[in-house]
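Re: [ENG-882] Designed sequences occasionally contain unexpected residues at chain ends

Forwarding the minimal case from QA. C-alpha cells:
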C-alpha cells in the first residue's frame, strides 16, 4: 500500500497500515469493538484532562522521567564509544510496560469497561497491567504460557498479589504466542465488558498505534536528556525486539533524525526452527494475531515454534511498524544469541552494578560488540527496558550458581 506521509512519525495511514504492513484481520464480531477503541482513543489523545491524568501518573506514580545514565565503567572497559542507558528498569514495576498499561487502563475506564485482559511472556506486561488495574479499580485477567510461568515465577506471584487472575495456557508451545491466542479467544466472548490491553506494538489496528504512542515518552525523554548532557544527538539508538514496544518507544522520536537505529532480535541457540525467535531475520510476510507483518511460519502459513532465553522475546511475529522500518531500510535489525545475552547479563551486573532483564541484555550484547569498534567521540543510547529481578532464579539454575 502506497504511503504519502512525509514524516515516519505520522504513521499509520487511515487504514492502520505502515506501508504494506499492519491493517486489521479479525473476526467480524470484533470489527465494531476495535473501531470503538480507535474512536475513543483518538478522543482521549486530544482530551487535555485525559492527558493530564496520564502525565500525572507517569510523574508521580511511575517515577518519570527515567534517568539517561552514562555507563562510564562499561564504556571504559570496552574502550570505544560512550554508552548511555535509558533506565526504564527504574520505573515502578521494573520495566517500560507500565507506560502503556496505565494509558490502556485509563482508556478502558473511560470506555466504561470493568475488566482488562492481556497476554504476557516474561510477566512484565502482566505485572504492569495488574498494577494499573489495581490502582484504577478494574478487574484484571492475564493469560500466560505454562513454560513462562515456570521460568518467571516471581512475576506470577506479583500478579496474583496485585489481585489479577492468572490463566495458565497449556496449548501449543505453551509460551507467548499461545498466550496471545488464548487471550484473544476470551476477548471475542467478553468484548462488551472487557478491554483487551495488548502488551506490545502488535495485533490489529489500532493497537500498534496506541502502544507506540504511549511508549514514545521513552524517546522523547532520551532525546531531551542527551541534548542536555552531550549537546548533540547520539550516533546510535539501540533496543531489543520481540514484539517491539520498547524499541519503537525509543526509536520513534529519532525516526526523522540522522541517527542509526538498531533493533536486536533473539538468535537463541541456532538457525533452525524452534531454536530462535529472530522474526525479521528469518521470517516471511504473513498474518498473525490480526496484523499483516513478518512471521516465522511454515509453508502452510502456520506460526513456527520459537525459542529465546528471554520469555518476553519468544514470539513468532513482530510489530508491523518494525516490519515497515526494515522494509524501507530505516532500521537495521540484527541478532544476539542466548550465550551472548548471558555474557552481557553478567557483564553489566558486575561492571555497572545493574542487573538487566534478559530481554534488555540482548541489546547490551550487541552494544558490547559494537562499542569497541567505534571512536571515543561516538555516542550510543541503549534502552535498558527492564530489570533482571524476574530472571535471577532462572539464570542461577542455568549457570548452577
Amino acid at each position: 500500500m502506497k504511503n504519502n506521509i512525509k514524516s515516519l512519525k505520522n504513521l499509520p495511514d487511515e487504514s492502520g497500515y505502515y506501508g504494506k504492513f499492519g491493517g486489521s484481520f479479525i473476526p467480524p464480531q470484533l470489527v465494531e469493538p476495535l473501531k470503538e477503541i480507535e474512536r475513543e482513543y483518538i478522543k482521549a489523545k486530544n482530551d487535555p484532562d485525559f492527558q493530564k491524568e496520564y502525565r500525572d501518573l507517569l510523574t508521580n506514580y511511575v517515577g518519570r522521567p527515567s534517568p539517561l545514565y552514562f555507563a562510564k565503567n562499561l564504556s571504559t572497559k570496552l574502550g570505544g564509544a560512550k554508552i548511555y542507558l535509558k533506565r526504564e528498569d527504574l520505573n515502578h514495576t521494573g520495566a517500560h510496560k507500565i507506560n502503556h498499561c496505565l494509558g490502556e487502563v485509563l482508556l478502558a475506564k473511560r470506555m466504561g469497561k470493568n475488566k482488562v485482559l492481556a497476554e504476557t511472556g516474561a510477566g512484565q506486561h502482566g505485572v504492569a497491567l495488574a498494577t494499573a488495574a489495581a490502582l484504577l479499580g478494574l478487574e484484571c485477567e492475564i493469560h500466560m504460557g505454562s513454560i513462562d510461568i515456570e521460568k518467571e515465577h516471581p512475576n506470577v506471584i506479583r500478579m496474583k498479589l496485585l489481585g489479577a487472575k492468572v490463566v495458565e495456557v497449556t496449548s501449543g508451545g505453551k509460551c507467548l504466542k499461545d498466550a496471545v491466542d488464548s487471550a484473544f479467544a476470551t476477548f471475542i466472548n467478553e468484548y462488551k465488558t472487557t478491554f483487551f490491553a495488548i502488551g506490545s506494538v502488535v495485533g490489529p489496528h489500532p493497537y500498534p498505534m496506541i502502544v507506540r504512542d504511549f511508549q514514545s515518552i521513552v524517546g522523547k525523554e532520551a532525546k531531551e536528556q542527551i541534548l542536555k548532557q552531550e549537546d548533540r544527538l547520539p550516533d546510535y539508538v539501540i533496543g531489543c525486539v520481540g514484539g517491539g514496544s520498547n524499541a519503537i518507544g525509543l526509536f520513534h522520536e529519532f525516526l526523522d533524525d540522522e541517527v542509526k537505529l538498531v533493533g536486536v532480535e533473539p538468535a537463541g541457540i541456532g538457525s533452525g526452527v524452534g531454536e530462535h525467535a529472530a522474526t525479521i531475520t528469518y521470517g516471511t510476510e504473513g498474518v498473525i494475531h490480526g496484523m499483516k507483518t513478518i512471521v516465522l511460519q511454515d509453508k502452510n502459513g502456520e506460526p513456527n515454534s520459537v525459542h529465546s532465553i528471554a520469555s518476553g522475546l519468544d514470539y513468532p511475529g513482530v510489530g508491523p511498524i518494525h516490519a515497515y522500518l526494515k522494509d524501507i531500510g530505516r532500521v537495521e535489525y540484527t541478532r544476539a544469541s542466548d550465550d551472548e545475552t548471558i555474557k552481557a547479563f553478567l557483564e553489566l551486573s558486575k561492571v555497572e552494578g545493574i542487573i538487566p532483564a534478559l530481554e534488555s541484555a540482548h541489546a547490551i550484547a550487541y552494544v558490547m560488540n559494537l562499542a569497541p569498534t567505534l571512536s571515543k567521540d561516538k555516542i550510543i543510547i541503549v534502552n535498558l527496558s527492564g530489570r533482571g529481578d524476574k530472571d535471577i532464579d532462572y539464570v542461577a539454575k542455568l549457570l548452577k550458581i
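QA comment: On inspection the terminal residues look reasonable. Residues 18-58+97-212 form a domain with the Rossmann fold fold (CATH 3.40.50.1100). Proposing we downgrade this to a documentation issue.
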